[in-house]
Design a protein that fits this description.
The structure holds 2 protein chains of 2 kinds. The longest helix of chain A has 20 residues. In chain A, strands 11-10-12-13-15-14-20 form a 7-stranded mixed β-sheet, sandwiched between helices. A 6-stranded mixed β-sheet of chain A has the order 3-4-2-5-6-7, with helices on both faces. Helices cover 36% and strands 22% of the residues of chain A. Chain B folds into 2 domains: 281 residues, Thiamin diphosphate (ThDP)-binding fold, Pyr/PP domains (Rossmann fold), CATH 3.40.50; 36 residues, no CATH class. The N terminus of chain B is likely disordered. In chain B, strand 9 and strand 10 form a beta hairpin. The chains are: A alpha/beta, B alpha/beta. Chains A and B meet through helix 1, strand 9, helix 9, helix 11 and helix 12 of A and strand 1, strand 2, helix 2, helix 4 and helix 10 of B.
């Protein structure tokens, strides 16, 4: 029987199962396959903090959402076309995300009475008619996987662990995906266990053949390649892009990279990634705590290296005294805050943007620190590279902000030519004649970087207030104010060193949507939709938060209204209202989830109708 | 990266004197403070170490002791309370050729910085740690410290402190320190010797210095430092030598059911063979622990000197080896190749 192939523009899939079921793995592989096929992709991994919550429980459900398209896309999708549910709990947690008439693939082998009870179902949803509005494909995934592996030496329990690849094989058939990348991945992942290479590869192919052979699946789908600018592309996750950005900054500046860190979700994968690249001279130190992690980075910076540290909000709270030491000592440092839900331990595996004011004001004293934020997974590369450039040029700690949503999310990335990267010039002071540790460059106000080992430049720095120029300890009242002003002015001058703000849409009009960080995708998509409807709306997405771009005030004035959507209760909103005295309004959400496009769209709609 | 010339081409290190290590800043410890002696002995010993002046780095935390770097004409970093070990670790790992010194006190190293202290010891960077122990908080004006004896009456403990004190030597040993020593602010010659031995030891060298705070805890160590009582209350450790002390060196220490016991070398039926002999190079730390605990046992003298000095690999060397191994196995890092090492696709 020849099966029907339908061409579609885009699709959103959601793989969900127990946290040990491998949903993240197959989601990542499907993302790679879709990216290689030339689609634009955006992903949202969503998993519990518990490594293995009780099997079959609602708390243990792990999901991976993937949106791919032949058009440019910015988000992992509000709702799904396909839900693969490995058990009743996965179904219950995710069913409301499935579009009416969406494809629902369920592993019927996991729908026994016990699993149904664990998920809180009194009746079997596969039998009680509650799923009539979906295209349900009940598949005995466990049994089929076992059957396919009969010829191998695997015990049932081991064979069952291959069922995620069986499911992936099915989805690859459904969307006409090549499986080469997954076969290669399996080969590498189980390098040391050839029997698993064989079994998982068989399961993958069996899933594919199953769809081809059974009459259950009549139609498959095809998503044509998206239009991209010419270049070489790869798929990349935010934290990996950040790690690469740091390595690139180290290579381009000639400074050895020293990254001090302490494990914390969702920042740890930057440490893991960097630790792989000792052949770049990268030194990673897993320290005893957050304070030690930044201390080591500060020490490295003092001795002339590119010091960097990374954490999430709780870790940044612990680092705040040390950040101030770097402010006072005026040493270059890159500090990563990969935000997650707070306060306190909060929801470690959920996204949020609630640390902005903490980064601005969460330290004692007048403590100006440049802050820049990445907006998309691939943007983490350029943004952290820029953080390093500013840190070295202005002799200052710089905070690089990201958030779980983009740190773990992935998208295609046009790989830059190394020669395209901005240069990072390093000047170690070597002239002893007339040297003073706190004399300053006229333009940048940076103090000299005079590193230990340089003859004749022996000097002392520290957290006590410094006398202007000489750097000696000073309690002089006027000197303290002067130094406080100098530190502020140095950071303020960075505004002259950043590109003009880009406006998406018209430079004037009824409504400007001003946003920052990982809300980029939802905001840009919402604005695109409203523009297509003819609305007068524009979008400015800020990378530079401190200092704000010097052209921002002028831009804001060209719009009747300003909307600031944030995953917090209005932190950028407060800053903008205070700085520019405008009556901007917020769209706020603190649920540990990114914005859906429709949420931003309806707020824009509401404001443009004037009934806000 | 900066080119180091002195490691490649042997150049004569200009003759340095104590004066070369004195900074232009006025020393602002209270008159009579034990810190003056430690500063002076350090400045006196540094010229003899054969290190170019610009390669010395002094890193401190917060407290009276931590003002030390300001008074040294060397590279110095007065960091924040308790955190000097972390900053020192970063300096050493990035530039192993530097001679890195941590200057700290009992509050700085053992209270707020206790966590960093134990981890510094176990990592074994080639760093020297001088802990000025005065058993009191001086800079904050006289509260009890983690080395103050239980029952200490201070401003914050008018009815006496409740905590048991740390024994810094025991703590350093338990944390895996490879060099552990104790000296006295009022014994300049011994102090210089111990500082030199600490420098010469490759690995983290921990030196506890009994230091008198003449304002808030005057005389805390006088029984160990003053002429009248010193000989009877201390035993100076020498590698390979038996534990003998007393003004006339007429007393020895032996083991009695795992307890140190003082006995007379001139009276009774004791044999000199019973004396405990010091072995600072013993890989097994049992003897060092035993000696460390002597300071808390009544009626036995306080050991002064080097408790332990053993060879272990240093963190920064192991790190450098990993970097070299990675370069040998995978070639020097190539950024272009790194960015492209994935499944890539071309869009024309």
């Amino acid at each position: 029987m020849r099966k029907d192939v339908q061409s579609i523009e885009s699709a959103t899939l959601l793989f969900a199962g127990d946290s040990g079921d491998g949903s993240q793995t197959i989601g990542t592989q499907m993302t790679e396959a879709s990216a290689i096929a030339g689609n634009d992709v955006a992903t949202l991994p969503d998993y519990p903090a518990e490594i293995r919550a009780p099997a079959g429980s609602l708390a243990g459900v792990s999901g991976f959402q993937l949106h791919f398209s032949s058009e440019t896309i910015h988000t992992p999708g509000d709702t799904c076309d396909v839900l693969v549910a490995m058990n009743p709990a996965a179904l219950r947690v995710n069913l409301d995300k499935l579009k009416p008439n969406g494809i629902l693939i369920v592993n019927t082998d996991n729908f026994a009475a016990r699993n149904l009870k664990l998920a809180g179902y009194t009746d079997n949803p596969l039998e009680d008619g509650s799923l009539v509005k979906y295209q349900v494909f009940p598949v005995p995934l466990t049994r089929l996987t076992r059957d396919s592996l009969k010829g191998t030496s695997l015990a049932h329990r081991e064979a069952d662990r291959c069922k995620n690849f069986f499911a992936l094989g099915m989805v690859c058939w459904l969307y006409n995906r090549q499986m080469d990348n997954t076969v290669k991945f399996i080969r590498e992942k189980y390098r040391k266990k050839p029997q698993y290479v064989e079994a998982n590869t068989i399961a993958l192919k069996a899933g594919n053949v199953y769809c081809e052979a059974t009459e259950q699946f009549a139609t498959s789908y095809e998503v044509k390649p998206a239009h991209f600018e010419p270049g070489t592309y790869r798929n990349i996750e935010g934290n990996m892009a950040a790690a690469f950005g740091l390595i690139a900054a180290s290579q381009r500046s000639g400074l050895p990279l020293v990254y001090g860190s302490y494990p914390i979700t969702p920042a740890s994968s930057i440490l893991h990634e960097l630790a792989k690249y000792k052949n770049f001279g990268v030194i990673t130190m897993q320290m005893e705590d957050e304070i030690a992690a930044i201390g080591a980075a500060i020490g490295a910076a003092f001795s002339g290296a590119l010091g960097a540290t990374g954490s999430s909000g709780p870790g940044l709270a612990l680092k705040s005294e040390s950040i101030n030491l770097a402010v006072m000592a005026e040493l270059p440092l890159v500090i990563c805050n990969i935000q997650r839900s707070g306060p306190s331990t909060g929801m470690p595996t959920k996204t949020e943007q609630t640390d902005l004011l903490q980064m601005f004001y969460g330290r004692n004293g007048e403590s100006p620190v440049p802050i820049i934020a990445a907006s998309r997974p691939a943007d983490c590369f350029e943004t952290i590279y820029e953080a390093a450039r500013i840190a070295v040029k202005y002799m200052t700690p710089v905070i690089f902000m990201s958030e779980l949503y983009i740190a773990f999310g992935a998208e295609p990335w046009r790989i830059p030519e190394v020669s395209e990267l901005p240069s990072i010039k390093v000047h170690y002071e070597t002239t002893a004649d007339g040297f003073q540790p706190y004399m300053r460059d006229e333009k940048t106000l940076a103090r000299p970087w005079a590193i230990p080992g340089t003859p004749g430049l022996e000097h002392r720095i520290g957290g006590l207030e410094k006398a202007d120029i000489s750097g000696n300890v000073s309690y002089d009242p006027e000197n303290h104010e002067q130094m406080s002003l100098l530190r502020a002015e140095k950071v303020a001058r960075i505004a002259d060193d950043i590109p003009p703000t880009e406006i998406f849409g018209e430079p004037e009009g009824e409504l400007l949507v001003l946003a920052w960080g990982g809300t980029y995708g939802a905001v840009r998509t919402a604005v695109e939709h409203k523009l297509a409807e003819g609305a007068s709306v524009s979008h400015v997405h800020l990378r530079y938060l401190n200092p704000l771009p010097s052209d921002l005030g002028g831009i804001l004035k060209q719009f009747d209204k300003v909307l600031i959507p944030e995953l917090n209760f209005g932190q950028l909103l407060k800053l903008i209202r205070a700085d520019f005295l405008i009556d901007a309004v917020g769209l706020n959400k603190v649920q540990g989830l990114p914005f859906y496009v429709f949420e931003v769209e309806s707020k824009i709609h509401e404001l443009l109708r004037g009934d806000a | 990266m900066r080119k180091r010339t002195f490691t490649e081409i042997p150049v004569a290190v200009p003759t340095l004197t104590k004066k070369n290590f004195e900074s232009d800043q006025d020393v602002r410890w209270c008159p009579g403070c034990g810190d003056y002696s430690i500063l002076s002995q350090t400045q006196r010993i540094l010229p003899d170490l054969g290190v170019p002046k610009e390669d010395f780095v002094f890193i401190s935390g917060i407290g009276c002791s931590s003002r030390f770097p300001y008074y040294m004409n060397a590279y110095g970093f007065h960091t924040i309370h308790g955190r000097a070990p972390t900053v020192a670790a970063g300096v050493k790992v990035a530039h192993p050729e530097l001679s890195v010194w941590v200057i700290t006190g009992d509050g700085d190293a053992l209270s707020i910085g206790g966590n960093h202290f134990i981890h510094l010891m176990r990592r074994n960077f080639d760093i020297n740690v001088l802990l000025f122990n005065n058993q009191i908080y001086g800079l904050t004006k006289g509260q009890y410290s983690p080395t103050s004896e239980q029952g200490k009456t201070t401003f914050s403990t008018p009815m006496g402190s409740l905590d048991n004190p740390f024994n810094p030597i025991s703590l350093a040993l338990a944390s895996g320190a490879t060099f552990v020593a104790r000296s006295l602010d009022r014994d300049p010659e011994h102090l210089r010797g111990v500082i030199k031995a600490a420098f010469e030891h490759k690995g983290t060298s921990f030196v506890e210095i009994y230091q008198n705070c003449n304002v808030y805890n005057d005389g805390a160590f006088f029984s160990f430092t003053e002429k009248e009582t010193k000989a009877e209350n201390t035993v100076f450790l020498e590698h390979g030598e038996p534990l003998v002390f007393g003004k006339d060196r007429d007393k020895g220490i032996r083991l009695n059911e795992f307890q140190p016991e003082v006995f007379s070398l001139t009276e009774g039926n004791y044999s000199p063979d019973e004396l405990i002999k010091h072995n600072q190079y013993a890989e097994n730390p049992t003897l060092a622990y035993f000696l460390a605990r002597m300071s808390v046992i009544p009626d036995v003298p306080h050991p002064i000197g080097v408790f332990r000095s053993i060879k272990h690999a240093c963190y920064e060397d192991l790190m450098a080896q990993q970097v070299e191994t990675a370069k040998r196995q995978r070639g020097e890092g190539d950024l272009e190749a790194l960015l492209n090492e994935a499944d890539t696709w071309r869009v024309e």
